[in-house]
Design goal:
The chain is α+β, with helices and mostly antiparallel strands. It has 10 helices and 14 strands. The protein has one domain (2-464). The chain has helices at residues 2-17, 56-59, 71-81, 83-91, 98-101, 149-159, 300-303, 338-342, 388-391, 414-428; strands spanning 120-125, 139-147, 180-189, 207-213, 225-240, 250-257, 269-275, 292-294, 320-325, 328-334, 346-347, 372-373, 379-381, 408-409. Strand 9 (320-325) and strand 10 (328-334) form a beta hairpin. Bound molecules: heme C (HEC).
């Protein structure tokens, strides 16, 4: 079996080394399939757009600073600002055309994309994480990101037209004021007998066709891909807005599917919350947050995955993990949040990787580049919550300030830091380099060991998940 896994890994390594920046997918279009397939939109604007004026999300809060009190109004205006495209993408997916919509994709991720909807694998979650919500299957999540024109101008600035020689510098990675990036996350049952009806929370949600492996992803040889449905469960919207959020320069928000909400499929995507900073002063869970608003009316399942001290994190985001603090295991411990995780976005051009990991941890110099703990080596060795070492992940750094010396900052963009730069370097760099923390890094015979999205070790005790 180890031999088979190794062979699979080697095939994947070759595929990643032979990748091209703008390929549409991983090359697995199903035999005999004649329906629509995903087309990457990389016709990025040639230069910066004129400065944004009269941003409706700023107007909604009287052009002052965002606060816990006015965040709901901000959220409504930001959602409305992307509604025309968002509604089409989510709810009228078969007629979605990114080039008509003027939304763009990042380069280098084609080898990870399934061919039908262009999504790539993110996390895997089970019933133990969503108690009392009627979840009856373990599910996997797949995601798709779009940059609006103002955000895509930064893709041009950073990658240049051919995406072969990125400008590895903080200045090139900065987004212009008003830039918007969205990301949809789809949930799919891993029970091959139940494509739908496995979770009441997803009843009636918008679905997209995906071509994915259905079954445990941590087995040595995950099942082959098949056509399968994914429910749109989460929709992130982030905006560069230094006027409303001067400390970080960004406002993060996410919508989640609420089966009970009124209206059409887009209306039923309700805000889970808004975050514009890391609340570095709140060093003990339970302290009041000043840079975070959570929607009290959000559906139960989406509130079960909030991050540390109630900071915003969505059901797809892996903001809770199995960690070990001073030798003691803490299962499903909130240890991250949208902005905590995104504030690690940086790249070291000498070591060709991120120095600190996405989640509070202890950096090392060999893969996976953070210390693992526990008898099964499936816990993240973690600094104690609230300690100075832990708070390194909960600082308010602007997008120009890297977390570690020797790295340049990528303005909170994790696609750059955690995915596309790695895949670019794998394709253009030396052939014998250490592999990134993607599927290829699995130890032969051990199956997939790391969440493809957050990079956290997968939970080995599937029943407890
Ligand atoms: C534990 C880490 C983690 C958390 C928590 C997290 N993200 Fe991300 N996010 C990532 C990574 C890694 C990527 C890039 C890779 C990918 O999309 O697979 C990403 C990508 C994105 C993108 C695409 C643009 C970019 O920055 O790369 C958006 C938008 C986004 N996340 C929004 C959010 C929002 C909103 C939340 C909270 C509701 C959130 N994220 C929580 C790790 C995280």
């Amino acid at each position: 079996m180890a031999g088979i896994a190794l062979a699979n890994d080697m095939t994947l390594v070759k595929r990643l080394q032979g990748a091209t920046p703008f390929q549409n997918n991983n090359g697995t279009v199903p035999v005999g399939y004649s329906g629509p397939t995903f087309v990457l939109n990389h016709a990025w604007p040639s230069g910066a757009l004129p400065p944004i004026v009269d941003a409706p999300w700023q107007n909604a809060i009287g052009n002052g600073r965002i606060t816990v009190a006015n965040a709901p109004a901000y959220a409504a205006a930001l959602k409305a600002a992307v509604a025309a495209n968002g509604r089409k993408l989510v709810a009228d997916h078969s007629n979605w055309d990114a080039s008509k919509a003027g939304w763009y994709n990042e380069p280098w991720l084609g080898t990870l994309r399934e061919p039908i909807s262009g999504t790539y694998q993110a996390g895997e979650f089970g019933p133990g994480i969503f108690p009392g919500t009627g979840l009856e299957a373990t599910f996997q999540t797949n995601v798709l990101t779009y940059y609006d024109a103002r955000a895509a101008a930064t893709l041009t600035k950073f990658w240049h037209r051919d995406a072969m020689q990125p400008v590895l510098a903080t200045t090139a990675a900065q987004f212009d004021e008003g830039a918007i990036i969205v990301k949809a996350a789809l949930f799919s049952s891993e029970d091959p007998k139940r494509e739908s009806g496995w979770w009441k929370a997803m009843d009636g949600a918008a679905t997209w066709p995906l071509y994915i492996s259905v079954g445990p992803q941590d087995s040595q040889t995950p099942p082959p891909a098949q056509l399968w449905s994914g429910s749109v469960a989460q929709f992130d919207i982030i905006v560069k807005d230094s006027a409303s959020s001067p400390e970080t320069g960004w406002v993060y928000m996410t919508l989640v599917y609420d089966a009970k909400a009124p209206g059409d499929l887009w209306d039923k995507m309700v805000p889970l919350g808004v975050q514009w900073g890391n609340d570095p002063q709140a060093t003990v869970a339970g302290m009041a947050l000043k840079e975070n608003w959570n929607n009290p009316a959000a559906p139960l399942y989406a509130t079960q995955t909030l991050g540390w001290g109630g900071r915003l994190s969505g059901p797809n985001d892996g903001g809770r993990n199995n960690i070990s603090v001073n030798g003691k295991a803490q299962i499903n411990a909130p240890n991250s949040s949208c902005m905590s995780c995104h504030s690690t976005s940086q790249w070291d051009p000498k070591t060709h990787r991120m120095t600190s990991f996405l989640l509070p941890s202890i950096p090392t110099n060999s893969p996976p580049y953070f210390k693992l703990c526990g008898p099964n080596q499936d816990l993240i060795c973690s600094p104690a919550p609230g300690s100075a070492a832990w708070m390194k992940w909960f600082k308010n750094r602007p997008g120009t300030a890297a977390m570690d010396p020797g790295s340049f900052a990528t303005d909170f963009d994790e696609v750059f830091a955690f995915k596309s730069l790695k895949l670019w370097w794998l394709a253009v760099g030396p052939k014998d380099q250490a592999l990134p923390m993607l599927r290829v890094q699995n130890t032969p015979g051990l199956g997939v060991r790391f969440n493809q999205y957050s990079g956290a070790p997968l939970r080995t005790n599937r029943k407890a998940n």
